[in-house]
Structures are given as C-alpha cells and as structure tokens.
Amino acid sequence: MPEMQIYLVGGAVRDALLGLPIKDRDWVVVGASPDEMTALGFVPVGKDFPVFLHPHTHDEFALARTERKTAPGYRGFAIHAAPDVTLEEDLARRDITINSIATSASYTRDRGKIDVNIAIPPEEWHRAGALIDPFGGLQDLAAKVFRHVSPAFREDPVRILRVARLAARFADFTVAPDTLALMREMVDSGEVDHLVPERVWQELSTGLMEPQPSRMFAVLRNCGALRRLVPEVDRLWGVAQRADYHPEIDTGVHLMMVLDMCARLQTPLPVRFACLCHDLGKGTTPAGILPRHLGHEGRSAQLLRPLCERLRVPNDCRELADVMAREHGNIHRSSSLDAAALMRLLERCDALRKPARFADILLACECDARGRLGFHDASYPQRPRLLHVLAAAQSVATNEIAAKAIAAGVTGQEVGELIQRARVAAVQTTLQATEMT
C-alpha cells in the first residue's frame, strides 16, 4: 500500500492565492483506505462519497477518487476511491481549473490521532514551488477566467450553477468561451432538468448572497439555464418598464440593479429573494398574461407560489417575498396615504405581529426604489416614515383599552374597533408631528 499523503485543494487554495481569507479547508487523502481513516479518528459522513470529518477541526477529508457517469443528473455517478488513485486523477474530476490546484500538507500521528497543517505558508507557495497545477489553474487565475478542467464537466449539471455562483462572487472573472459553449450544450441536452430542487435552491441562495448577484443571473441567461430553472425570472427581460419611472426601461435590467443594491446594503437572504420575485407579474406565463385586473403585484404573488413550491423555498423567504410582491407598490406610494390607509397597510403586512419582518420588507422596497439608473444614492423616506408609523401604532395600550371597554359592557368586535380607532389616532398624531418638523 502506498504511503498516505494529504493535500489542501480547491477553493481554499484558490482563495489563499487571491489573498482572501480561507473559510473552509478541503483536503484530499491519497494512499489511504476508509479503515485507515477511521482508525485515525476520522468520522465518515454521507453514503455516496468517501468523505470524513477530522475529529477536532471538523474539516472535510476526502479520499482521492475518480467518477464515472452512469445516469442523468448530478447523482448519476459511480465512485471509485482506492489507495492507488492519484492526486492528478482526483483533480481531473473537478469542475474548473482554478479549483483544481493543490498544495501538500504535513501531518503528524500521535497515539492513533492525526494533526494536519499546510506544509508551506501561502505567501511562500510560488517561491517554493509548492503548488500542484496539472490543468493550468494558475494561468486562468491570473487571467481571471473560469474554464472547465475536462469534457467531464458536462456530466454534472450542478457545475453550471457553481460557475454562475462564482461569477457573482468574483465579478471581474469571465467564463471561457469554450466553457460557456459546453454549458449551453448541457442545457440543450436537458441535463439541467435532472437537478433536484434542493440543490438548485442551495446554489441560487448562495449566489444571491454574493457581492454581485446580477453576475450569476447573467451567466445563467447566457447559457440558457435560467429559462429552464427559473422561467418566471427569465421572462422579465424584454418587458418594458414605465420610462418616466424606470430610466433603464427593461424589467430584467431593473431587477439585476435591485439585486446588486441588495448586496450593497448587505441585506439578508429573505430580502434578496423578495427582491428577486417582486416583479414576476410583469412577465408572461406560457399560457399568456395573467388577468390584468390583479395588477402586476397580484400577478407576482400568483406566480410566486408555484416557484416557491417547485424550489422548496424556506418559509421565511417565501413569506417575505409574498408580502413584498403584493405591497411594494403601496409602500412606494405610502407618502400619499392618510392615517387610516396606513393602518390598513400595516395590517396587510402583518406588521404589528411581525415588526422585524416588516422592517425587512421596507428594506427590500428601498432596494427596489434605488435599483434604478440615477437613483443608487437617492434617499428612500418611506422607510423611516413607515417605521415611525408602526412605532406609533405599537404604542397604543391595547390591554387598557380592552379592559375599560369590557368594564363598560363593550365586547367583541366593538373592542377591536376601539383599538383600531386609537391606533389610527396615534398614527395621525405622528404624521402631524412629522409634518411640523
């Protein structure tokens, strides 16, 4: 049996070479068996791949392996992991060249346990010749290019999503023309249709949280994958906006500006997903345009539901997106609403019960308003104004009102009406005070 060797690989090496902090360390182990790994205290995880967790650091250590395509989809692989699989064979199965660079690790064994470290510090890798790069990853890293390692790229449709997600993280990188052509072939062959919803959501949600989410959607559109995975969003390009309100004219272009504004304001995932879906109703469905009487907000809410079910979107993202789709127009116009109308808006948003979610809805609306040409640095007074309105409504002592009403013989719906009137009065007082200042 060959002597065990350990290498740091993938994104950890890539990020270190780019001067970025290493978040997750992935290691490849050559010349070891599963029994040897468990004897050293490693904990096996999963059933499909020979992956182990270090007992103390919890880093992932994978036995060097090769893969053979056996069926459509990203799960249709036969895995071969054995001590005789080489590092280069393992790197050959990886997606893009900048993720197929490795460096040696040093390790010590002590009483059946193992301690693993990088053999040479990252700043000395180049000088010491410590990098193993059989597929030109260093050259592509310098050229800022995403390039597939081999034609085997086509065997895993998740790789399309990974490249798109990385484009959102490294916005100054481009996809190599031959890689983009390969991605288009994968879409045309129906390979992406075999992706499971959970994996699509995992990659999309991660990409939404990157510094420039619009780049992810640009890559997915360029290879045709967006049309297959999220057609509701893909149909927004080419749909005209009101020229007096949206200088960029195109709904898809506006949407990308909104998502990048989300990143600029460092918003959480539910806000970014809500912004992604807020204008779905401006597009069309395969059967034609949804009923016009709903307004584009109502149509957006209708299209949102099947999208969320199909991708199995988490409830917090789904609920925020639903309110945003229905109410963002009313929130934008809220400066013209009187106290009673503002209270109705708060109630439709369930703001009194879920004030934190309402704050996120307002943040999403600000991203929508500022995601337009010439408005990136504009103020959005609706947000602080509505937060003040909510605070005024919350300040009403509802328990005292209810107790006094019950003592006076008032019950049921009338108690609710008294509370409502008190809240409207509180909001009115706040509005008057704001206007005076």
Rg to the nearest angstrom?
27 Å
Anisotropy-based shape = elongated
Strand segment count? 12
Helical residue percent band: 40-55%
Report the top-level CATH class of the domain at 5-143: Alpha Beta
Unreliable segments of 5+ consecutive residues: none
CATH overall fold name of the domain at 5-143:
Beta Polymerase, domain 2
Structure description:
The chain is an alpha+beta fold and 437 residues long. Among the domains are: 5-143, Beta Polymerase, domain 2, CATH 3.30.460; 266-387, no CATH class; 395-437. It is built from 20 helices and twelve strands. Strands 1, 2, 3, 4, 5, 8, 9 and 10 form an eight-stranded mixed sheet that branches. Strand 6 and strand 7 form a beta hairpin. Helix 14 packs antiparallel against helix 15 and helix 19 crosses helix 20 (413-436). The longest helix has 24 residues, at 413-436. The radius of gyration is 27 Å and the shape is elongated. The chain starts with a strand and ends with a helix. The mean pLDDT is 89.
